[in-house]
Each structure stands twice: as structure tokens, then as C-alpha cells.
Amino acid sequence: MQRPAYLLPVIVGAQFCCTSLWFAGNGVMADLVAVFGLADSALGHLTSAVQFGFITGTFLFALFTVADRFSPSRVFFVCALLGATCNAGVSWAGHGFGSLLALRFLTGFFLAGIYPVGMKIASDYYATGLGRSLGYLVGALVVGTAFPHLLKGLTAEGLPWRWVLYTTSGLALAGGTLLVLLVPDGPHRRPGVGLQPAAFLRVFREPKFRAAAFGYFGHMWELYAFWAFVPVMLQTYASLHPGVSIDVPVVSFLVIGAGGVACVAGGYLAEHWGARRTASTALLLSGVCCVLAPVAFSLNWPAGFIAFLLFWGMVVVADSPLFSTLVAANAPAESRGTALTIVNCIGFAITIVSIQLVTGLRGLTDSPLIYAWLAPGPALGLLALCRRQA
Fold it and tell me: How far apart are CA 167 and CA 32, in angstroms?
């Protein structure tokens, strides 16, 4: 069957539009703190609420085989609609911290019907060459995640915070509509078998799968904590160097968004180096960035510090589509769906721990040394990959 040329661009575009919901709250965090009287620790807690919602949604969607029982494109659209509604709901007056947590949790829950389901839609069309397609899809996720920061810094005064939420919600609705209208069910769609609880421990007995999974866990320890605190890093640097002025929203977008290009480049590089070697290199480089972060903050050279963050923003996520490929390739065929769900849930649970750790450390000290605590993730992930040929 001939695939229409527009399919992958539409899927990638819809993924970008809808995943802009992920960090929409982070892009306007300073405004949320001021308007609703939140504590400074709200950044970590609200980010973790999205992650926890995503974990819950991923598990329940897999348990009830939602994307197998119903058209994946329709699931994507419905979740885009509901996620957009919850995201826009943050702008309503009268919120307390609890209601904001609930809305961000629900946004994360419905993202479980967008990001993984978008991957499934792509796999239903691309039985071969999926690795490169995943590079584009994860790249779209990365740029979508960064986009609210760009919206916030779009004008000299900054786009009003409510309009950042309205715009990302509108994008999500547009992306979901575009996909459901233009992307029908793929020719390689197969019914899933649902979760197999008995497979939980069995899949980790496979050495290559275990190596790929633990590499992914190390990667996730660092990734979302880095993304969540990029604006804080920039603000901290400016406070340490009086007279330095940084456009925090725009630079945050560039630092996080640079990873989108790295995901695509990593996919092409893996065709020559292999996925394991490319992922290991990215883990090594991002781990070095964690260790060097305190030194970078001491540089009295803003351009050098921003260049360091740009490089970190690329290597911290370049391995993400590669781990997706490695985990899928080394999962037992008869329980692949369960294996991928388990790994995703554990990986995102780890992000909550690292985000809360950095949040707690920030409550104790303003020292940039706290970001060195992200280094154990890449180090342990690299150790897992090197011990076994994944």
C-alpha cells in the first residue's frame, strides 16, 4: 500500500501541537505563583502532577487496550480536546493550589492518549523505517514542550499568561482535528493483547531488554528535571552576575527546543553508529554536563553559559528516540505491549523523584551544585548499557 506523502508531516505536526500542553504551566509559572499566591516550590509540584497524570493515563490506557479497541486517531482527537480544556482551565479565576494540581494532573492524563498513541499511529503506517520516524516524533515532542516558553517571550512585554494557555490549547485542538481528519487507521494496525501482569518480572530477565530499560531510566532521571529547571537556571545565573540580562522565556525555548534537532540528528547518526553506541555517547556527554554545571554558573560570560545550556539541551534528549527503539527491539514479542508500558511508567515515575529532589534542594540552597545531582542518572544508565550489549 502506497503511503500518502503528507502522513508523517501531519502526525509530526499534530504531535508538536498537542504536546505544547505538557509544559504550558511551566511557561507561565511566574505568573501562576504571583496571581494565585503559590509557593516557589509550586514549579516542582505542578510539573510532577503532569508526570503523575501521564503515568496513570499510560497504565490505564494499556490496561483497557483503549488504542486497540477504538480508532487511535479518534482516541488522539478526544484526548487532545479534553487535554486542551484542562489546560485552558488553569486560566480561570479563583484557583487554589489543589485545583491547579488537579488540572495539571488531568492534562498529563490526557497526554497519555497523545504521545504514546501518536507513536502507535506512526508504527501502524511505518512497519519498516520506524526508527527514523521516531526521531521526528520525539523531536516534535521536544519542540512542542519548549513552545510555551517562546509564546511567553513573543513580545517585548511578554504575551499575557492567559493567552499562552489559550494558544497552546488552541494548537492542541487544531492538531487533534488535523490528525483525525487526515490520518485514518494504518494498514499495519494489529489488535493488542492488553497488559499481562505476569510479564512484569519476566521481561526484565532478558539481559538486552534490561540493559536498554535501565539505560532509559537513567536518561529519564535527568531529562525532565533539566527541562523543568532551565528557566530557573537562567534566572540563577543572572542573579549571580549583576548587570547580566537574559530573555529567560526565549532562551528557555532555544535550550529545550534544540533537543528536537538533536533527536532527528541522533536518528540519522544511529544508522551509521548503531543505536546503542549513539545513545551511550549522548548519555556520557549529558552526564559530563551535569558535573560541569556548577562550573558553568561561575563563568562571567553569558554567551558561554547559554552555549553550554544549548549543548546540554541537545545531548540530554538526543538518545530519547534511540531508547524507544532499543526497548521495543529487545522486548519479548509476545509481551511487547506490556513491556513498553512498564518501562514508560517506571521512567516517568523516576522523573517525579528527580524533580522533587531538585525542588527540595532548592528549598535548602541556591547553590548551582544542586544540578550535579542529575549526574547519577546518566552514569547508571551508561553503566547498564556498557555491561550488556543492548
Answer: 17
- Rounded Cα distance, 269 and 271, in Å: 5
pTM: 0.92
Q: Could you read off the pLDDT of 291-347 as tens digits, one per residue? A: 999 999 999 999 999 999 999 999 999 999 899 888 878 877 666 667 777 888 999
- Domain encompassing residue 311: 202-390
pLDDT, tens only, 170-218 = 999 999 999 999 999 877 666 666 666 666 677 788 889 999 999 999 9
CB-based contact 169:92 (threshold 8 Å):
no
Regarding whether 373 and 295 lie in a shared domain, the answer is yes
Query: Helix/strand/coil (H, E, C) string of the chain?
Result: CCCCCCHHHHHHHHHHHHHCCCCHHHHCHHHHHHHHCCCCCHHHHHHHHHHHHHHHHHHHHHHCCHHHHCCHHHHHHHHHHHHHHHHHHCCCCCCCHHHHHHHHHHHHHHHCCCHHHHHHHHHHHCCCCHHHHHHHHHHHHHHHHHHHHHHHCCCCCCCCHHHHHHHHHHHHHHHHHHHHHHCCCCCCCCCCCCCCCCHHHHHHHCHHHHHHHHHHHHHHHHHHHHHHHHHHHHHHHHHHCCCCCCCHHHHHHHHHHHHHHHHHHHHHHHHHHCHHHHHHHHHHHHHHHHHHHHHHHCCCCHHHHHHHHHHHHHHCCCCHHHHHHHHHHHCCHHHHHHHHHHHHHHHHHHHHHHHHHHHHHHHHCCCHHHHHHHCHHHHHHHHHHHHCCC
Count of structural domains within the chain: 2
User: Which parts of the chain register pLDDT below 70?
Assistant: 1-2, 127-131, 155-158, 188-200, 333-337, 388-390
- Note whether residue 197 is domain-resident: no
> Any idea what the CATH number is for the domain that residue 131 is in?
1.20.1250.20
Instruction: Return the closest-CA partner of residue 351 out of 224, 245, 252, 235.
Output: 224
